[in-house]
Design a protein that fits this description.
Blueprint lengths: L2 H12 L4 H7 L4 H9 L25 H27 L3 H10 L6 H4 L2 H14 L4 H9 L2 H6 L13 H8 L16 H10 L3 E2 L9 E2 L9 E3 L2 E3 L3 H11 L1 H16 L6 H13 L4 H9 L17 H11 L9 H10 L24 H12 L6 H10 L8 H13 L27 H4 L3 H11 L14 H12 L9
Antiparallel strand pairs: 1-2, 3-4
Helix pairs in contact: 1-2, 3-15, 4-7, 5-7, 7-8, 8-12, 10-11, 13-14, 16-18, 19-23, 20-22
Length: about 500
């Protein structure tokens, strides 16, 4: 990988702009790097179970004060789960990036299921399964507590089937409503019969955070689903979907993956190629991701910078661009920023998830993004932190450190090549005496955008008065980061 390709891989696959990580993988084979990420030990990529996981809803007969106390504590625990998950997402690992993808696919909403323990179990399921077998993940999500609450599966019982989950299982979670030719993939009768097969599962949060199957609530009768008849249960339904609609599932999910990691309008041939790979590997996700993230398709010029950053991507890339880390005390500020930009973690707007891409940008969210970038400059922390950043982006020994810093930061900040960034000319000449202290010929005689970027950085300051070691140098650096975020191209990944 070139440096540009390494930066693209880290941005898309790990939500990271960390310059040290970019250095570490530049020059390596993408396939080797992605394979390391896919096979990283699970214990390194998820926060540990909180101490309150064995605290349940107060037992029957408890007074209202005990219930209120539990619910109040639960609100704090929800914030704790969101904060810990944010920390995982900001760590820049592929498995955690995949967890976010699955969260927007198997959507649940904490505002409906309420309990922090169920949120933790849901995230653990998505993370532990994020690069595993998709079929098995579908089976498990059928009986996940947050999903049983969110789509009313806990009320689904023999004699009174609830079709909410059965419908979304087919329409949004596995195969889609229609195939590529516009033919329906299932009928209303299939929805009704699948709902019967999914009966019996419920929750008793007074003594467990695990779902339980109550035999008396399960419909034991025969069901005809996708033209197969039998006394089906939820596992049978999933098996039939993957057996009788294998190609439709593969294509539906291939498109979802490509929209997330490639571009929002994937080529049909690319969809078919990814679908065939998923089928060939019996719906194991890891090999599909390995192939996709190391393919020529992924690194094509028209792929780089072809997606609008989601709010969490935007802020994560903002912070890691500055080589920053999120301290636990500052996580609420970051979460608030992500919420303001329209992506409240654990609370997508509907069962269809966040629509993404153009939907992320509006007359309200664009100024909010600019404000968020101003806020994230604080994560560089002390003057010492800014000194580290300035030295990171300034080539040692280069005679014009201001030129080096300005161009290197801009290259790191934008996904698209700098020649494609519309950098206006301020109309003001460089400050200072350029006769005695000239700027380099390749800058002065080269493309205008390079000069304009250096002018944007320096403002009214002579180039020779700026050095990463100067006492107030960090002020120009901070303002430059904020200025770059105003460009439309900065919104792209």
């Amino acid at each position: 990988m070139t440096r540009t390709q390494a930066r693209h891989l880290l941005r898309r696959a790990c939500m990271s702009s960390d310059p040290e990580r970019i250095d570490a993988i530049t020059g390596r084979l993408a396939a080797d790097v992605v394979a390391e990420w896919v096979h990283a030990p699970m214990e390194t990529v998820f926060f540990h179970a909180p101490s309150w996981m064995n605290t349940f809803y107060p037992p029957v007969g408890s007074d209202q004060s005990a219930i209120r106390a539990f619910l109040q504590q639960n609100e704090y625990w929800v914030d704790e789960v969101r904060s810990d998950w944010l920390s995982d997402l900001m760590a820049g690992r592929l498995r955690n990036r995949m967890t976010l993808f699955w969260h927007n696919h198997f959507v649940t909403d904490i505002r409906k299921y309420r309990y922090a323990a169920l949120a933790y179990r849901y995230l653990f399921l998505l993370t532990s399964s994020s690069l595993g077998n998709f079929r098995q993940l579908v089976r498990n999500i059928c009986t996940d507590g947050s999903m049983l609450y969110y789509l009313d599966g806990r009320f689904n019982r023999a004699g009174a089937p609830n079709e909410n989950f059965a419908r979304e299982l087919m329409e949004l979670f596995t195969m889609g409503a229609e195939n590529e030719h516009g033919t329906p993939n299932y009928s209303q009768q299939d929805v009704a019969e699948a709902a019967r097969a999914l009966t019996g599962w419920t929750m008793n949060v007074r003594n467990s955070w695990h779902a339980v199957k109550v035999a008396s609530r399960f419909d034991r009768g025969e069901k005809t689903f996708l033209d197969a008849t039998g006394p089906w249960d939820h596992e049978d339904v999933v098996n039939l979907i993957f057996r009788r609609r294998q190609d439709q599932v593969a294509r539906f999910m291939a498109r979802r993956l490509l929209e997330e990691f490639h571009r929002v309008d994937p080529d049909p041939d690319a969809v078919q190629a990814v679908a065939e790979r998923w089928v060939a590997h019996d719906f194991e996700t890891g090999p599909v991701i390995e192939a996709l993230l190391s393919s020529e398709l992924f690194f094509a010029e028209d792929t780089i910078g072809a997606r609008i950053k989601s709010p969490i991507e935007y802020i994560a890339l903002d912070i890691t661009l500055r080589a920053g880390q999120v301290e636990s005390s500052k996580r609420p500020l970051v979460l608030s920023g992500v919420d303001t930009l329209g992506q409240r973690l654990l609370s997508p707007p509907s069962v269809a998830g966040w629509p993404g891409h153009h939907a992320w940008i509006s007359t309200e969210t664009l100024p909010a993004r600019w404000h968020a970038t101003g806020t994230t400059t604080e994560f560089a922390g002390s003057v010492e932190g800014w000194n580290h950043i300035m030295q990171t982006y300034t080539e040692p020994g280069y005679p014009w450190p201001a030129v080096s810093f300005a161009l290197n930061v801009a290259e790191a900040a934008f996904s698209v090549p700098l020649e494609h960034v519309a950098v206006p000319d301020s109309g003001i000449p460089f400050a200072g005496n350029l006769d005695t202290s000239p700027l380099p010929d390749d800058l002065m005689q080269g493309p205008a955008y390079r000069r304009n970027l250096v002018k944007l950085f320096l403002g009214s300051n002579p180039w020779y008065e700026w050095s990463p070691l100067a006492p107030q140098a960090w002020l120009l650096a901070r303002n430059y980061f904020v200025a770059l975020a105003q460009f439309p191209e900065y919104q792209l990944s």
